[in-house]
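Problem 12. The chain below contains 357 residues. Write out its predicted structure in token notation.
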Amino acid sequence: MIDRSEQELKMYPDNNWDLMENNEVGAKAAGGTERYMSFIYNGGIPRELLENVQIIPSRLRDLKEDKIRIWFEHNLPNDPESMKGLKEEEQRKKYHKIVFLSNWQYQQFMNYSNIPYSPQSTVIEGGFEVDDEPLPTKPDINEQINIAYYTTPHRGLQLLVPVFKHLAESDPKIHLHVHSSFKMYGWEDRDKQFEPLYEECRNHPQITYHGFTEYYKLRELMKNQYHIFAYPSIWPETMCRAVLEGMNFGLVCVHPNLAALPDTTGCINPFMYNGSLDPNEHANIFAQILVQAITALRDNADTVNNILLFNKMYTMQRYNTRLVQNKWANLLKDLNNQYATEESRKFPKEELILRVY
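Solution.
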């Protein structure tokens, strides 16, 4: 079980976290998968709907024959854990439901893992604690524009840092805040390969490297201090919580149209761009769009503010806690009714195939 902050424990005193599926990865991590699992079990869904259910978050360790089994997929079809759990039809038959994070992701599994388009599968997008307060007044953009990157380094930091350093040569009023580390997943050893990049950040006067930042502290910085989420993603996201939180907290989001990003954001961000597999070409395109975002903040503040208000409303409507937890509650009610007894939940028997020679 991941360590809980005091704030989180106070927010959800009636939680059901003791019922969560545990494995050696999730026990150390606090990434998107773990946050979503915590969200399902934070007390918003009645305990009686969860007690007879095993929700497996993309990592097959063991299956409980007396439970209603839900495979909850967070990865891509080529992920070893996903291939282990979903590749074979005989394995898939052991699940009563397969839940995907986004329609784009579901389509990938249909295309590359031969997952059938059937009622066994469904999509329930990720919810999070959306902020429904009015957008706060952030630091004066004429004094400094605060640009943030707050996901793991392998997703695009190596493109962002050189682009930012280039822009900073002619713009002393931009500052980059980097909240990035594999410590989020308990994989500190993987930070070693990015240490030179972190050191570049530490040594630049217009970059602050924060490392790993506890989630609720980061939320406050996003809400009250940061103006732009700069995300030149090179990682095919199956759903992107980071960009959604940026939209909800009033950040101008600059990102490519890669993988599930258009699906997740509804294609409404005007600074979403068409990227490239070539790193240099991608960096040049990203630099142009990031400059456009900075210029828009300075020269068209009213227009940008309307965009930010629309983005906030979009995330509040599509990803709010009540909506997403209701979808889960309805699914669990149906499954509990359909598989009301332990006998009905047992693994399907292998079919006896009679061969005549």
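Discussion. The mean pLDDT is 93. Students who got a different answer should revisit the alignment rule from Section 12.3.
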